[in-house]
């Protein structure tokens, strides 16, 4: 890699780190190009060069942290011996991510990410295709064996992740939800809703 490419990668990294920092510190109202460039000691021109605009930066940031959420979640699910254990492992992996990366979790569960996700749903899904295809196959196999209810994989995904996402949002925004309690209670309650 050339020195110019290394500098470019370093600039992208600084911009992404600064953007997450600013979002966690200032929320959506303070998430501006000026705040991000000041926090990352970047020029506005370099931000526009690498990301096009603020939406491009949000896209890169959401992609980065979705990947970091989905990797351990997919691994936990695919390595489980049964559907029940897969659900338990996936819930734990998701809640561990929220605990270990609260700033990124706050961004991923924010109105900013929701708007971005709605505007770029297919693009985000396509970018995660390599990770999502094995999960869809896992769900299909568990449906075929009778372990999971015979409903569409998209509905199963909502039944499995919906309560976890809602718990994470509440924990991140109100702070009145205990993640350890959620990790103990949610898997069995989700399992009762999706078992075959």
Provide structural commentary.
This protein is mostly helical and 196 residues long. The chain has 2 domains: 1-51, Orthogonal Bundle (Arc Repressor Mutant, subunit A), CATH 1.10.10; 57-192, Tetracycline Repressor, domain 2 (Orthogonal Bundle). It has helices spanning 3-26, 33-39, 44-51, 54-79, 83-100, 102-108, 111-119, 121-127, 129-144, 153-173, 179-194. The longest helix has 26 residues, at 54-79. It is elongated and about 55 Å long. It starts with a helix and ends with a helix. The mean pLDDT is 91.
User: What is the number of E strands?
Assistant: 0
Supply the CATH class of the largest domain. Answer: Mainly Alpha
The CATH superfamily title of the largest domain: Tetracycline Repressor, domain 2
Strand content: under 5%
Give the proportion of residues in helices.
over 70%
Q: What separation lies between the terminal Cα atoms?
A: 52 Å
Protein name: TetR/AcrR family transcriptional regulator
Domain HTH tetR-type: 9-69
GO molecular function, one term: DNA binding
InterPro entries: Homeodomain-like_sf, HTH_TetR, Tet_transcr_reg_TetR-rel_C_sf
């Amino acid at each position: 890699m050339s020195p110019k490419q290394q500098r470019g990668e370093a600039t992208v990294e600084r911009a992404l780190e600064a953007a997450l920092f600013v979002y966690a510190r200032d929320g959506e109202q303070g998430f501006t190009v000026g705040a991000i460039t000041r926090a990352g000691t970047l020029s506005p021109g370099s931000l526009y060069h690498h990301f096009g605009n603020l939406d491009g930066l949000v896209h890169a940031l959401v992609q980065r942290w979705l990947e970091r959420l989905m990797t351990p979640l997919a691994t936990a699910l695919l390595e489980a011996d049964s559907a029940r254990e897969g659900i338990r492992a996936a819930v734990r992996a998701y809640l561990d991510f929220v605990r270990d990366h609260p700033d990124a979790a706050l961004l991923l569960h924010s109105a900013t990410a929701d708007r971005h996700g709605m505007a770029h749903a297919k693009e985000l899904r396509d970018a995660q295709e390599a990770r999502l295809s094995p999960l869809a196959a896992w769900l299909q196999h568990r449906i075929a064996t009778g372990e999971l209810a015979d409903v569409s994989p998209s509905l199963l995904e909502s039944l499995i992740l919906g309560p976890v996402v809602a718990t994470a949002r509440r924990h991140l925004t109100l702070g009145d939800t205990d993640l350890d309690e959620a990790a103990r209670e949610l898997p069995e309650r989700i399992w009762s809703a999706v078992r075959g």
